[in-house]
Structures are given as C-alpha cells and as structure tokens.
Design a protein that fits this description.
seven-stranded mixed beta sheet; four-stranded antiparallel beta sheet; mainly beta; 118 residues; 53% strand
Length: 118
C-alpha cells in the first residue's frame, strides 16, 4: 500500500507563486518516478510534470514549462512542485502520483486545490 498526501494549495493572485508538497509513505516501488497532474472543473486530468528517481531528466507539460519546477527529496520521501508566475488557467486540483513497477502512474493522492484569480 502506498499513500500520497499533497499539501500547499491555496488561493492566490495571478503572478504569485505556490509550492506544492507530496509526502509518500508505505511500500513505494523502488526507483519509482513521481509526477504531478491536475484537473480543472469540467476537464480531464492532465499531466503537469514528472521526475525520475534520480532527479534528472524531468519533463513538463508545454503549458507550464519555464514556470513550474518539480523536485524530490528521496531521503524524506517528498516530492515538490514549485509554481511561479501562476495564471488563472492554472486553477485546478493538483494530484501527486507515483509510478508502479510497470512504469505507469498507479498510485494517487487525494489532491490539493489551487485557485488563481486575475
């Protein structure tokens, strides 16, 4: 069993920054990549960012490149998403996810709400 708990969401103004955190516990697969996804009201869940176990070769959705940064602290079982220059279109529930041994995102947190007003 893997538990993922997100925190750090909130309501901000356009141009502000937020840092999301994800605490992982339980039997996280060794060498698991971690990711962030988001879902806006009425829309499907979409990929935001991914980071492998090593921390290198991060990947991002085009809509957040240059504004968001994903990082991890394996010693603390934490994953972070630094979000800068937030825009109203970034408003969504943000989810932390962990890949299973098969390489697909299988474990999910409950989400944290981010609201950006103009």
């Amino acid at each position: 069993q893997v538990q993922l708990v997100e925190s750090g969401g909130g309501s901000v103004q356009a141009g502000d920054s937020l840092r999301l955190s994800c605490a992982a516990s339980g039997r996280t697969p060794s060498s698991a990549a971690m990711g962030w996804f988001r879902q806006a009201p009425g829309k499907e869940r979409e990929f935001v960012a991914r980071i492998p176990w090593s921390g290198g070769s991060t990947s991002y959705a085009d809509s957040v490149k240059g504004r968001f940064a994903i990082s991890r602290d394996n010693a603390r079982s934490m994953v972070y998403l630094q979000m800068n220059n937030l825009k109203p279109e970034d408003t969504a529930t943000y989810y932390c996810a962990a890949e299973s041994s098969s390489g697909s995102f299988y474990y999910w947190g409950q989400g944290t709400q981010v609201t950006v007003s103009s």
